[in-house]
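Could you help me review a protein record that somebody else here produced? This is what I was given.
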Amino acid sequence: MAISLLVGPSGVGKTTACGIVAKESSIKVIDLDEFLRQKIGVKSLSAHLAEVGDEQFFTLSKEGIEEIEKDASSDLIIVVGAGSINLPVSHSWYQSKNLLALVGDPQVIYERGNRQKHHPSISGFIKTEFNEARRCLYKNAGSMIDVTFKTPEAVADEIIRIIKG
């Protein structure tokens, strides 16, 4: 049984690719943000993050991941939102896990989705989503997939190949 944490900047395609993975394989997918939203009973996890701060949010995320892992009975991917990796001190804990990072060209990722809603400029997007601490975590993941020129289906196939080994 393999348990992987999927990380990557906002808009890289984590949710889309994992939706395909869940449909086309026996790998279970759990979105950590959705799990935490339900667990703590809030509508907006980003509002909760702003309220409690990065340190408390990391603690909540870590506890959620550990709870999910404890109950795992099959291959599993936990999709980790960017909010829980904001705190550089959390990176050593994340790096002790089986990390799979989706990465890509910031300009391409920015243009793919509706990133302009949260980041009016490409420079703001890069400053937030590709800051040094996050890039360091992505670079040190056990596996990394560059999604720049891949379809969601190709990314999902690669994720399945990595998980199933």
